[in-house]
């Protein structure tokens, strides 16, 4: 693609990374075309394994349906189609159908979309197809990322990387993650020993790697900023700004910018980091209401815990995420549930990263039935088959409600969300209804669940 080739030779950024890159690009080959030893820490890793045997798209039959876009209609590379077929995706979700025709052509994008809309697969498909269509020729150094995805939380990074690994499984593309709170050396070995095609990272750890020259961002062809509003809220923007400066200039890279909300601050960032982007907006309602049966139970604060445990014992509750508003509230809830014999896990910022990943694995495999989570820790986690979401406390930010209930009713399945409204937080309901554009009927909990 013109944009990509161009970016390799003509970036005129004066950033530190570009100076480093200009030096490095001069040093990559000697006059006779042989690779030259690099002065800094960049090394040439071993070649990765060859691609899997050919697969034919005729094995993946999806009938044409008016008004729906099939992945077949997008001219995607066969190994990517193979992975999409394995995942059982037949038709594009709205964000995929609207963004891919543009992003596959190299356009920048602003995506207003929540989790649950298929946005991860939307940007990963664009990245993977592009990397496959434009294989790198000649020398490469370890640590030079071709695609960079920045996300605010470790869980989200791990989740995006898991989705990416599923989509590259029939290619020789590599996926690496860099997240804080986990073993630096192990992550360092990863980026040193294998090429880095897709790098998924949280801002802080990524900056550490870039400062130590364990990764190099000056060859990035596609940059994805996921959940930009959350990064703003969490105070990550100065770090993200430094990272973006280490990548090629805006006109020499493709940038896909996602945010659930577009405030003035978010918009300013989007304007700085993208060029003539296409905009795709997926309304929250299309996430929340289609596949999730929403209930609001009126309950006294003192009875909420009992109601929760009665609910958790119902036979149709296969797996349950309980959201609280604060870490201490979640911690106490989790302790109580464990004390009362429930298989429960806790996902909050105060839990060590390794433990969080173990908890998520346990929840995915069904070993853990109830996951208690804060908004930050719980956001962006894609686990299918969650039957119920409980809002133990109503979220203070209406957008969080949509994020929370979007954990269930995923991938075409039905889900149930139950929000407890008590004397302390029922006043938050009107704002919520305004965002949803629908009335939330308050109910008395069914007799069978009453304490
Ligand atoms: P996300 O919005 O990225 O959190 O994705 C939500 C869920 O939808 C994930 O579990 C994806 O695996 C699934 N998904 C994404 N795209 C499709 C598709 N085209 N068809 C069916 N499921 C999908």
Write the layout of secondary structure elements.
Elements (H helix, E strand, L loop, with lengths): L1 H9 L5 H12 L50 H10 L6 H10 L5 E4 L6 H15 L11 E6 L3 H14 L7 E4 L5 H10 L2 E6 L1 H9 L10 E4 L2 H6 L3 H10 L7 E6 L4 H10 L4 E4 L2 H8 E7 L5 H9 L7 E4 L3 H13 L4 E4 L5 H13 L4 E4 L1 H4 L9 E4 L6 H8 L9 E7 L7 H8 L5 E2 L8
Parallel strand pairs: 1-6, 1-7, 2-4, 2-5, 3-4, 5-6, 8-13, 8-14, 9-11, 9-12, 10-11, 12-13
Helix pairs in contact: 4-5, 5-6, 8-10, 12-17, 17-18
Notes on the structure:
The protein is α/β, with parallel strands linked by helices and 451 residues long. It folds into two domains: 52-282, Rossmann fold; 286-449, P-loop containing nucleotide triphosphate hydrolases (Rossmann fold). The protein is 39% helix and 15% strand. The protein has 18 helices and 14 strands. It has helices at 2-10, 16-27, 78-87, 94-103, 119-133, 154-167, 184-193, 203-211, 228-233, 237-246, 264-273, 284-291, 304-312, 327-339, 353-365, 375-378, 398-405, 429-436, and strands spanning 109-112, 145-150, 175-178, 196-201, 222-225, 254-259, 278-281, 292-298, 320-323, 344-347, 370-373, 388-391, 415-421, 442-443. A seven-stranded parallel beta sheet has the order 3-4-2-5-6-1-7, sandwiched between helices. β12 (388-391), α17 (398-405) and β13 (415-421) form a beta-alpha-beta unit. α8 crosses α10 (237-246), α12 (284-291) crosses α17 (398-405) and α17 packs across α18. Bound molecules: adenosine monophosphate. Adenosine monophosphate is lined by residues 89, 92-93, 96, 115-121, 382, 384, 410-411.
